[in-house]
Specification:
By secondary structure, the protein is of the alpha/beta class. It has a single domain, classed as NAD(P)-binding Rossmann-like Domain (Rossmann fold). The protein has 8 helices and 7 strands. The protein has a 7-stranded parallel β-sheet, sandwiched between helices. β4, α4 and β5 form a beta-alpha-beta unit. The radius of gyration is 18 Å and the shape is globular. It starts with 9 loop residues before the first strand and ends in a 14-residue tail after the last helix. The relative contact order is 0.12. Keywords: Oxidoreductase.
């Protein structure tokens, strides 16, 4: 069932202070949500994001939350339930990237942080609100932002790729579980994009036929997929092609195609990330 409008709904977005998270918040306002809940660890940018949205219809709620901490998630979720109840729309958008060879990663600052924010946080946050979504019986949506890196291995992305592989496996399994259990009023969308021009992947180069994606176009496509309940969204089309080729070619042959033809394996060579 496609959602025609978000009128009267509550939308919660993580990583909402900048980039695509901030854009999702603007879309929620444009779509006439009643409450828009913004979570981010950066309090200063969070205030700026909230200021852009206030006075345009919905009630804006901002919470400084470190989604890498389960205790912080639990406390913030309790505040949300007390203030506005269970969200109808949950956008698990927050994420970080560390573009290094595996042996260059620091244990806590890189490996533990990446897995906590990218993999565990969407699970913990969804677990906080899903029972309320199930019990409420209202049409609800969950969007989990994964990555094409969760479908294809890539040098200098070992930990990031692992975190996104986890998201994809969990997110699509959750979709199936909800359907099997009869909770069909809740739809889960797993989003798997290639590189997007938000600054997060500054310095990365798109593989052959895969230019860096425009964030405005991407957020609107994700928003539509969310409203339609699309199970998996891959962008651009080359992500589907690469996934198909990886599935049918022998490993050695795929390494040649990915590395020498498409340039996937060299895409992170000049990565610097957001300053």
């Amino acid at each position: 069932m496609t959602i025609a409008s978000l009128t009267g709904t509550t939308v919660l977005i993580t990583g909402a202070a900048m980039g695509m998270g901030r854009m999702y918040a603007h879309l929620a306002v444009e779509d006439h949500a009643a409450h828009v809940v913004l979570w981010d660890i950066n309090g200063e940018l969070l205030e700026q994001a909230a200021a852009e949205l206030e006075g345009r219809g919905p009630e804006i709620h901002r919470h400084v939350v470190d989604v890498g901490s389960l205790a912080a998630i639990e406390a913030a979720a309790e505040r949300v339930r007390a203030d506005v109840g269970t969200p109808d729309i949950l956008i698990n958008n927050a994420g970080i990237v560390r573009g290094k060879y595996f042996w260059e990663h620091e244990q806590r600052a890189d490996i533990a942080a990446t897995m906590a924010i990218n993999s565990l946080a969407p699970m913990h946050i969804t677990r906080e609100f899903l029972p309320g979504m199930i019990a409420g019986g209202r049409t609800s949506r969950i969007v989990n932002v994964a990555s094409a890196a969760g479908l294809l291995a890539n040098p200098r992305m070992s930990v990031y790729s692992s975190s996104k592989w986890a998201v994809i496996g969990w997110s699509d399994s959750l979709r199936l579980e909800l359907a099997q259990a009869g909770h069909r009023h809740i739809k889960v969308t797993t989003f798997c994009p290639s590189y997007i021009r938000t600054g997060m992947f500054e310095g990365a180069r798109g593989p052959l036929l895969t230019p860096l994606l425009d964030p405005g176009l991407v957020t609107r496509r994700v928003w539509q997929a969310m409203k339609e309940g699309t199970p998996i969204l891959m962008m651009p089309w080359t992500v589907k092609l690469s996934t198909a080729l990886r599935g049918i070619l022998p490993v050695g042959a795929w390494d040649v195609v990915a590395g020498r033809v498409f340039g996937v394996y060299k895409s992170m060579e000049h990565f610097t990330g957001r300053k």
